[in-house]
Records
---
Amino acid sequence: MAHLTIAASEKVFTGLFEAIRDNFQLTRSDSRDFGPFTASYSLKAHLEDGSLDLRADNTIQIKELDIKWDKLDLTLGIDIPEICVGGFCIIPIPFDGCLLRAPKICVFSKDPDISFTLPLGGLITSEISVTASLLTKYAINPNRPAGMNDWDAQDANPSLANHWQLFIDPKFLDVDLFDISDMVGDLLENAVDAAIDNLLGFLPGWARDLVKAIIGSAIGLIRKILDIGDDIQEWISDLLNVSFGILDFILQLIADYLANKTPIQEIEDPYPIMPADDNPNPGAPPKIVPVKIPIRDLKVYNDDKEMVIQGNVG
Amino acid sequence: MKARVNLQLLKTAAIDSGALGVLSMVVHQFSSPGRYSIAISNQGKVLKYIQFDVDAKSEVMQLDIDLAQAATLKKKAHTSATSSSKIEDQTEQIISPKGYVLFHVSSGSGYSVMVSDSLGRAVFNSMKLDNNDLFAVSLLEPGSYSMRNSIDSAAGEITVSLPPEMSGKLKDLDTQYVDVSVKKLDPQRIELISTQGLVFRTKSSARIVITKKSTPQAEAARIRQKPMISWRKLEPERK
C-alpha cells in the first residue's frame, strides 16, 4: 500500500490544464521557392477553449482545443510573365496562317516580380483533439551544484530543489485541417490588384489598364501561375499543411509542450512538510531546519472521476 | 524587383513611315536576286551600311532587320575584300525573292532606309513608299489620331480604345488594313483596339504620318467643360 495518496477532482485537474494551455504560444516563419512562385509565412498562435474529460480507462481526452491564429501572414511572390505587344499578322495566308508577322516588343525590360501578403489570421480556424495518459517524471535541477544538500537547495533563490513532475502524455493528436473562410478569394484578388497597381503605379492610367488587358485579369494570371484551380481554400490549405507542414510542426510542438516541457504540476523532492522555525531548545542552534520527506515511486493514474497520485516515502 | 518599362512604347505621339520608331515598320519585297546594300539613317544622317542577299535558292520568306540594333552593331574584325568601301558590316542575311524584308526599330525613332542593288541603283526608299509596299503600326494609347499621306495629303481618322473588359485576348485581334491610293485612304475611318495591328497597303507613292489628336480623358474633359459665361432667367421677387 502506498505511503502517500493525493486525489484531484476533474474540476481541479481542468484548472491545472487550463493554466498550461494559456501559457502555450507559438511563433514561426519559413519560406520556400516552389519554382513558378515563392511563398513564405509568419505565424503566431495560441490555444483556447477545449473540454477536458477524465476517462475510466486511465486516459484523458481533450476535445475541441482551438488553435487561435493571432497572425498567419502568407506572402506569395511571382514573376509576371513577359508582356509583349506587336506580333500581329501583316500578310495573312487565307485559311493557312500568316506569311509575314510583325516582331514583338516587350513592355518590360525584365520579368518583374510582385509579392502580396494574405493576412489569414482571422480567416482560419483549426481544432485539435488529444487523447493522453498522465505521466510522472523525476526532474533533477540542472543548475544544482554537485554535493549541495536538499536544504541548501531549498533555500537558494531561485530554488535549486529537484522535483517530481506530472505531465500529460499525448497518445493521439487529431487535428481538423485548416478551415479557411471563403473570404480568402476576395482577399487574394484585392491583394493581387493592389500589388500590380503598385508595380505599375508610375504609368499613366491607360497604360496600366492596357498591361492588365494584355495579361488578362490579374487574379486569372495569379491563379494560372500558382496553379490554384477552382478551390483557393483547398490550395492554401495544401500549401500550409502539405508544403510547409505547419500542422505537423504544431502537433509535434504541442505534444512536446505537454509531454516534456510543461508539467501540469510539480512536487518538490524531498517534500517539505514542516518549515524552518526558531529552535526552542536553549544552547542549540537558533533555527531548526525544515522537515522534508523524500518521495519515491511516484505514480499517477485516473478514472472517470478523479486523478490520483500515489507514492512512497523513503 | 521594380518593373522597368519600355517607356518608348508608351510615349509615341507621332508615327511616320519615313521616320520609323518603335512599333512601326515598313515591308518591301525584293524580287530580283542579288546583293543589296542598306543605308540606315536617323534624322536624315546615314549611320550604317549593311547588306543582305536575295537568293532564289533561299526558302526564307521573312527577313526582319532591326534598324536600331543594326546601326549600333560593332564593326567586324575583317570585312570582305570584294565589298564596297562603304560597307562596314558584312552580314549573312539571305531571303527568297518571294519573301519580304521587314524594317523595324526596337528602340529610338527617326529611322529610315535607302536600299540599293548591286549596281548602286536605289530600289527602295522608306521615306517614299511605293506600289505594293506595306507600312504596319500598332497603336497603344487610346484616343483619336489623324492619318495622312504626306505626299498627296489624303487623310483619315483612327480611333483607338482599350478593350471594354480585361479579356486577356488582345493577341487574337485581327489586323486592320488601309489601302493607300492616289489621294485616297480606304477606309477613311478606322477603329482599333489598343495593340491591334494596322497595315497600310500602298498602291501609290506614300509617306504615312499618324498623329495623336486627343486622349479619351482630354475629350471627356473638353465635353464637361462649362462655358465661362452663362445666362439664367431671374424670377421676379414676390412681395
---
Amino acid sequence: MADNNDIMLMAHLMRRAGFGASYEELEERTAKGYEATVEELLHPEDLPDLEMDVMNRYMHGWRDMNGLMANQGYWTYRMVNSPRQLEEKICLFWHGIFCVGDSKCMRARQILLELNNFRSHGLGKFDNLLMYLSTDPAMLYYLDNQLSHKDAVNENWGRELLELFSMGVGMDGEANYTEDDVKACAQAFTGWTIANAIPRYPYGSYANRFLYNKFDHIDDDKTFLGETGNFNGQDIVQIICKHPATARFVARHLYNFFVADEPQVPAWQHTPPRDMELIKALEDEYFKSGYEIRSMLRVLFNSDNFKNARFAKVKNPCEVVAGTLRLTGDFDTPKPRFYDPALQIRYMGQDLLNPPTVEGWHTGKEWIDSGTLVERVNFAAGEMGRTDSPGIKSIVERLASRADVISAEDLLDGCLELLGGYELMPETRELFLSQALKAREMNTGSEEFASQVSQLLQVIVATQEYQFS
Amino acid sequence: MTTDVQGVTYRYTHTIGRGEEAGPGFKNPVSLARGADGVMYVVNRAYDYRADSKRITVCTVDEDYIGEIGNGGRLGGDLMDVGEDASDGSLVWPTSITLDEEENLYVTDEWLNRVAVFSKDGDWVGAWGVVGDGEGQFNQPSGIHMDLDGNMVLVDTGNNRVQKYTKDGKYISSFGSFGAGDGQLNMPWGLDIDSEGNIFVADWRNDRIQKFDADGNFLMKFGSRGTGEGELRRPTDVAVDSDGIIYVADWDNDRVQVFDSNGMFISIIMGDATLSKWGVTKLEANPDMKLQREIAQGLEREKFLRGPIGIEVDDEDRLFIVDSQRNRIQIYRKIPPFFVGLYDGARL
C-alpha cells in the first residue's frame, strides 16, 4: 500500500503538472512511482489523445472552432479530461506568455490553431517554439508585423519578442538589450507577414497563412546584441536563444508557473529570483539540453525545491475550475450548459484566448479580489454540493468504508486527504471542529452521511487554503 | 448488343445560405426537408450559448426567405440561456426533420427526448416521446423519416436501435441493438427510406451504412473506417434516389460519397460552393467585407464541404447537402449518363 506522504506528493505534482487528480488516480500514479509519473507527464505524445468524435457530434461549435465561447469550452474540456495533462498545462503556460487576444484578432479559430502549436511543441526546443511563434498568423497580426515594411518598420513585434517573449528588459540590475537592438530585431522581421484573410461572412472563418515577402524585407546588415550580419528573423531567434538572459527568462517563467509565485515580469530586472539555486539549475539545463523545455521541467519536477513548494502558489482560475471538475468527475458528457465552466474561468478573471494585454494575466495574489474570490468559492462549493457526481460519491464511499462511526476530526482529516492533501491553518481547523462539526461523531451508514460529507467539502473548498496549489 | 451504363455524374447548381443567428441564413444547419412549391425547412442547431438561433428556417430552393419556426430559448428563458426548457415550441438539440402528407413538420430533439410537431405555418401542434429504454421509449432521437405507410421511423441513438411510431406517437415496432455485427448499431444518426420501403441507417460509430427491409431485417452493409474511396469516418446521414443510388454524408471526412444500390463506390463530392444570393446581399451591404473578400488569398477553399451532416434527394433527383459548418446548403443535379429526351428533331 502506498505511503500517504507519497500520495500527497503525487497530489502536489498533479496539481502543478496537470489540473489535479482524483484520489483513485493518485493511488495508481503513486504505485507507478514519482519519477516514472514525471516521465509519463513529460511525454504526452506517448499517451492516447482524447477522442473528440462524440463531443463534436453534440457540441457543434467545437468542430467549427469559430466562436470564442465554444473554443473556451473546448479547451476547458481538454484540461479536465485529457490524459495528456502536461500537454494542456504547458499550453496554458505559453498562452499566458505568448499572448494573443480575441479582442483584437476576432478570429478564435486562428488562436486555437496557435494553441495546437503550443501543445505539439511547447515541451520542445525553445528556438523551435520561437520560430513557430514568429510565423504564427495570429501573433503576427496581434503585434502588427503585417504592417511592418522595409520603408516603414513597425517595431511592435520586434520589441515584444525581446521584452515579453524571450529575454525580458533586464537581469541582475542590468538591461538585456538596447533600443538599437529592438530596431535591428524589427528590421530583421520585415517581410514576415500574413496572407489577406477570407472575411468571416458569409461562410465563416478559414485558417490564415504565414507569408514571407522577400521584396519587403530589409536585406542589409544589422547589428543585434553585439553581432553584425545580414540577419533575417531566424538568425535573430538563434542569437536570442544563446543569450544568458533568455535562459534566466525561461527559467523564471517556469518557476513562477510551476513552483512558486514570483513578482510580475516587469519587476524581474531589479528583483532577484526567490530560489536562485533552482533557477541556476534550470538555466544550466537550458543550455545543456539545447534549449529544451522538457529537460528543464524534468530538473524542476524532480528537485527538492519543487517537492517542498506545496501550496506556495495561488491557483489560477483554470486550476480552480478544471481542478474541481477533475475531483467531481462528471464533466465528460455533452449537455447544453457545457460551456458554463469556461464562463466561470472567465468570471474569475482568466478569459481564455483573450488575455487582457500582450503582457498577459498578472498571476499570484493578483488573481484574487473580493469579486473573483466569491466566484471561486461559489463555483467550488456548488460542485462539492453535487452528491450525485461520481467524485463526491467516491469520497463518501471511501470514508464510509473506513469505519461504521467516524469522529469529526477523522472526517475532517479524511476529506482533506481525499481532496488531495489540503492542510488547514490551525485556527481554521479549530473553527471547523468547534463550529461546523461541533465535535460530534457520525454514523457512516446513515442516509444523511453523504450530505454531511458534501457539506463539509463545501466548507473546505470555501477556505483560503483551497485557493492555493 | 447491349452496353451497361457505368457511373453517374453530378452538376453543381447553386448554394443557399449564409451564417446568421436569425433571419435569412442558417446557423449550423443539420437537416432539411422539402415541401411543396420549392419550399425547404432547414433545422438550425446553432451554438448552445445562442439559444435564440435554434430555429427552423423556411425558404425556397431559389433562396427566397419565408420565415422561421420554433422558438429556441425564447420561451421561458433568457436569450442567451438555453436551459433545458421543454415548453411548447422549444428546440434545444434539434437534429432531424421530416414532413407528413399535410406538410406538418416532425423534428427530433436529442436533448428534450421528444418529437416536436409544427404545422407548415409554424403553429405548435404538440410533441410526443417518453425517455427511456423500454418499448415505446427512446433516448436521444436523431434521424427521422416518414415511411410508405405514413408512419414515422426514427433513430433511437442512445438505445442503438430504430423505432417505428404512428404520426401521433403510438409505438409500432423497433429493431437493432448495440454492437458491430450485422444489424447491430453504434450511436446511429440519420436514415432514409427508399421507394420500396427499405430503411438505410447511418451507423455512425461503426463507420458504415446498413440497409434493412421495412420490417427491420438486415439486408446489407457497406463502408469501413478510413479516408479512402468508399471508406467512411462517422457518417451522419444517408439518402437514396429514385434509381437506388445511395448518398452518404461522410461527416468527419468533410465530403459526400456516392454508392450504387449494392453499396459499391461510385464517386466523391468535395464541394463546389459559390456565393449564395444571401451571401451576395451580405457583401453588398458591407463594402469593406466585399473588398476583403476580393483581395483574400486562398478563396478557393471556400467551395469545400466542412462537416456535412444532412443529405436529401428530392423528386427531381436533386441532391441537397447540408454543409453544416459553413452554414449553407450545396445543391447538385444528377446528370443521367444516357439520353433522356429533349430532342427537338434537329440534326444531331
